[in-house]
Amino acid sequence: MLYDEVRRHPWLFALLVTGSVGVQVAALASPIYMKQFFNLLVGGDLAAAAHRLLILVFVIGGISVANWAFRRMQTYGIIQFEARAMTDLYNFAFDRLIAHSYQFFISHFTGTLTRRVSKYAGAFETLMDSIMLQFFPTLIFIVGAVGILFLRNHLLGVVLGLWVVLFIAFQIFAVRLKQPLRHARTDADSRMVGFLSDDISNQSTVALFSGFAHERKMFGDTVERWRSATMRSWGADEIIWAIQDFLIVGINVGVLWGMLVLWERGIFTVGDFVLVQSYLLGLFGQLTNINQNMRRSYDAIADASEMIDIIKMPYDVADAPDAPALAVPRGEIVFEGVGFSYPNGAAALADFDLRVAPGERLAFVGPSGAGKSTITKLLLRLYDVTKGAILIDGRNIASVTQDSLREAIAFVPQEPILFHRSLMENIRYGRRDATDEEVMQAARLAHCHEFISRLSDGYATLVGERGVKLSGGERQRVAIARAILKNARILVLDEATSSLDSESEALIQDALQTLMKEKTVIVIAHRLSTIMKMDRIAVIEGGRVAAEGTHRELLDQQGGLYQKLWSIQAGGFRDDRTAA
To answer: Does the predicted TM-score (pTM) go above 0.70?
Structure first.
């Protein structure tokens, strides 16, 4: 991840590294001149040393200015580098996530997936801050400080170097030992957010079923598991901090005692005390931050690993290598021995054979669970068949790109979901280069122009998340307008008029008759009155075609499933055997 971003933005990374090195070199150089300054101050002859003291003041001031300049360089570099890198990562994570299958998305909480994308880019920011603002600068400072003290006194340098190694080794050991607790806390956090997202999405269901107390208890249990995991993680942190502080106190007292002995022997000066203490204080500050940054880094790794798992996950439905785009000049659809079972093992289709002629209008009817909607999902490649093949104009849909396949099909689902965008944008999604006038014409044909015109903001009205500000019938008419605007060669209607009142349904049936002209049409409907004028009706039962024919032919089959379904619904409208 870091290597890829360095390759994309090498000059910004070089600027960042230069600034980080410069800051630490300045921090190492300043105590050396401070040592000389204090030695002159206590030397006794201030008049003779005044000129040199003034020079040292300017040198120390120059080092401080250089430190300021390098820190600005470091800050500018990391701001620019991280902003660009995080932009790349957000786009990459979105591209990998959004291309997963329909099954993937119905199996995961929306809130959890959203959080994973956000945490993935945020983890990079945390890791970069830790590496370039803490670990790398600390390494430079440690090597420089220990090296300078070693040159001043070998024993002091060796002792301090060994202590630094011990201190860092303990921190690495402690943080790694604590990693399972950190993962448990991250997992509990994701579960809590996912639960919260699920409840917010289903707030109306909670209210209508008086579930506030039940959901409050379930959420409380989820938060309690988060609290327990968090307390274990934080408790381990406190133990690490206690041991770390003890090690700092020990080395500080030990070094001060050793320096005092060397001073009594005339080996160390007052300036050496300033030099050593400056380095010790710098080391303590940076080493103390190592623990905190290691913890943040491991948290970031745990956060990123959730998204990385998704990135590494193979797609359930993927384009074949070098798959061509699908061309649909005729619109013939053929199901050849199609078999399919859902991931949970439930069988949906078995040896399903059917041909839909170019320009034919075919309706699927049958009881719930017979496999009607599954057929449309397989046609759109929301799932891949487990057996057999689906052909459009002679091409196996598994061999062409998914985008081109779905571009050739206009689909109106039973429960249309809209973007939290304007009505204009939602309808235009059928053909994103359409003009405003073309969008409004599609809306007129779908009979949603009337209700849109009555809204205060008209076509600029935001529909709310998933279109919740509209009624079910209004959402359905917007979805139909989108399909009309798309004007694809193949049209699939899955209960497309199920949410409409009788008057609206009559209006839209006229619009659909116009839309269906010169198209291959597949209609799924439970309301049999909507499909009497189809060219052919296929009765689906148990994942197979149980019968097929026109409305009249199927009614003439005594004891057939279609006749039973018709007789059940006949109370709602007249039994019209001559209507077809």
So the answer is: no
